[in-house]
Write a structure and sequence with these properties.
five-stranded parallel sheet; 3 domains; seven-stranded mixed sheet; FAD/NAD(P)-binding domain; homodimer
Chain lengths: 458, 458
């Protein structure tokens, strides 16, 4: 007789844990088993900090106590196949398990391009969400004087900054003309690049890696401009690809980018099978196009939707796509973005205006800890709807970008923002008269179609 | 021939400056004169910090450069009367000025109860927004070892904390059973009280001041429980009253609490006269009842509405009342509130549920600078609408309360919040799986009418 469980969750990172705990919260009577490969799961966004601020992966472990206390079972194992019609999962040792509902949170794997020569040399690494690998990596990097990081997305930038802090010489190579290029508009990305350089990272943009050179272990990196960098280790942070092997093998529909196809409630092509997180299909909030953005916060939101709708559609999904909300910190400066950039909006065909206000995050500005605070809004000229926003600031900018996130997700317009009430406090925020989101909206309203446009925003 | 100006603004604090700059931004062609009494205007919310962190009022001055650069004229003078029919203002020296539009931002004055015996003794002070007075106060407090602060609203609490930091022995007396009692629910207020005590402030709640004793100068404070406190100075922070003398004298309609009556566009009973800020009538966001809340951030929002609608109603006011959003800092801990408390909601007749989640403002929690982060939501049982929220946290809580503020102002429900996307970053926010606003919404959804209520929130 097969073992049975009501809800089987595969994956122990953001998607898996949130799906399991949300489902348990909604259905305390259902039995839930979470299966993951790793004995200890790492906090994914915390990984770069293992190599500097935290110092060890032990401080970046997601505790299992919350799940266990909620009555969720955890099994450290690998599921090798699933019969979706019979709803049976098979483990590596041949054990089988019958489930009623399945949530796939199988995540993503680092991308290592096949064309990259020398990728298999010793001391060439990637950043998987795997504690054993990361511990080995940290150990291997200990005696490395010079490290080259390839790919300047959030992980590459944070890794570079942290490795520099821990004493290494770091070169960051990015084939795009700027760092964080897909996430921010140019002026914000350049601001971040300047800060990263100030921290001592050697930033090389507009140049790709042609080949990794060495005998048995990496010695040099050959760049597309034919210069070489002498290096002791290479870290490839060239993006991630959805881990959809299991889904594919059981016959679930995947999209053209290899993500598991899902609807607005995270249901796959199979009635009782849901997917959430990096492995699941996403659609862009602004355009509804298929998107390849992967974020732990998006994974958590999707997992919550999955967990709440397993047995009946109880939570009307009021957003219709993924609004990427990111933030990062370089030195003492925070960079955040929500929604679409001006560049991306224009490319998509939106008629938008970008409006920027520069202020301070204390009032008066003479208070200690004051940091410059910049907000840029991306506003639809036709409707005044706020489609995106970017911020630069001190630590409070990490939540300031969430203020913008809610504004965007609720479809608010500059009119709404102009008459919006906010809370201000000398030590914590900008002044009431110069709250940067409102001031940027004021500038947008003045600039839309010159002053006093048909929509009368100015 | 009388001098003329298009827009006359009276008052140089949050309301006056924002009204003037908003009006100029919308109508660059109009001449604007801002008249204020003080040579230098202080940042109102910054006043408590003059007495500790800042050390001098010079660091708390609002610069005039922004207004002047925008082309707004400033006159340091007192307007003694206004003929509202002829639209003529008269200055102290008899000068007259004809205006087209008038904005009253005359603010508020500290309340000193008439029944309080000993209130006229030397070394009994209030906290007006007046630099000359504050400079004198700071000088007078220099040699005072023991200071008694009466009234534990935000200003009383911040003054106490700052005076204690600067070395004085401080007793804070509050007639209500708890500090900050009108703003927060009990458990949050008690948390704040504990912190204030930890900072060394002697907090006495549930006890009023009966009389201030002394010969020519204050020596003791006699409390309602007949105990006395030996003290060298008394600071009365017992609230503020609208400064509506000028409005009253010219025949504008005032409401029962002495505020200048206004509509949703800040228009007074007189067609071309607007009022904003502490002197102007407010209505509560949740109930539309007349409210006596005074906040610089509310003043700024109202002034923006006034400035945008002087010549035609161009900015549809999408909120229908004042949502108080406050935050303060005691020691290293931030307390914030937006909208209505559970206690006030229940008193008003709302059927609400309060749900609280306690987490951390970093992830993993082992990152340096981690602070406990608590969010309480006040949710309508009937509709799931979020009516209010309170937070405790580190510095980022100053913007976290604004995330809640936008959620409340847009009429969002717990369903909206459960499927809301947020941005998270290890050094800056809670984890994606434990973002406190979403977790508190999850708890609310589970608790509304037990599990699986008619509204299916859980």
């Amino acid at each position: 007789m097969d073992k049975k469980v009501d809800i089987l969750v595969i994956g122990g990172s953001a998607a898996g844990t949130v799906a399991a705990s949300t489902a348990k919260s909604k259905h305390p009577d259902k039995s839930i088993l979470l299966v993951r490969k790793e004995a200890q799961a790492v906090v994914p966004c915390g990984i770069p900090y293992i190599f500097g601020t935290l110092g060890t992966s032990e401080k970046d472990v997601m505790p299992d106590t919350g799940l266990k206390n909620a009555g969720i079972d955890i099994r450290i194992d690998t599921i090798t196949s699933i019969d979706k019609d019979k709803k049976i999962a098979t483990f590596e040792n041949g054990d089988t398990l019958v489930f009623d509902k399945l949530v796939l949170g199988t995540g993503s794997m680092p991308f290592k391009p096949g064309w990259l020569k020398g990728g298999a040399l010793k001391n060439v690494f990637t950043i998987p969400k795997n504690k054993t690998y990361l511990d080995q990596l940290q150990n291997d990097l200990k005696d490395k004087k010079h490290i080259t990081v390839v790919g300047a997305g959030f992980i590459g930038v944070e890794m570079s900054d942290e490795l520099k802090k821990s004493g290494a010489d770091v070169t960051l190579v990015e084939i795009q003309p700027r760092i964080l290029g897909l996430a921010f508009d140019e002026e914000i990305a350049l601001h971040a690049e300047e800060n990263l350089k100030k921290d001592g990272v050697d930033v090389r943009v507009g140049v790709g890696v042609k080949e990794i050179l060495g005998d048995t272990q990496v010695e040099k990196v050959l760049l597309s401009d034919d210069t070489t960098i002498k290096t002791d280790a290479v870290i490839l942070s060239m993006g991630y690809r959805p881990n959809a092997e299991l889904a594919k093998a059981m016959g679930l529909k995947l999209n053209d980018h290899g993500f598991i196809s899902v609807d607005a409630y995270m249901r796959t092509s199979e009635k009782d099978i849901f997917a959430a997180g990096d492995c699941a299909e996403k659609r862009d909030f602004a355009t509804s196009r298929v998107s390849t953005t992967m974020l732990a916060s998006t994974a958590a939101a999707e997992a919550r939707v999955a967990g709440l709708n397993l047995y009946s559609l109880s939570t009307y999904r009021s957003f219709k796509g993924t609004i990427g909300i990111y933030s990062t910190m370089i030195g003492e400066t925070v960079y955040g973005v929500a929604g679409i950039t001006e560049e991306a909006a224009t490319k998509e065909g939106f008629a938008v205006i970008g409006s920027t206000f520069k202020g301070m995050d204390r009032h008066p500005g003479k208070l200690p800890g004051m940091h410059e605070q910049i907000v840029k809004l991306v506003v639809s000229k036709a409707t005044g709807t706020i489609l995106g926003g970017e911020v630069i600031g001190g630590e409070s900018a990490g939540e300031l970008i969430n203020v913008l996130g809610v504004i965007i997700q609720t479809g608010s317009t500059i009119n709404d923002v102009l008459t919006m009430q906010i809370g201000t406090q000398p030590m914590l925020t900008a002044s009431p008269g110069k709250y940067p989101i409102i001031k940027a909206a004021e500038i947008a309203s003045r600039n839309i179609n010159g002053c006093c446009a048909p929509n009368e925003y100015c």
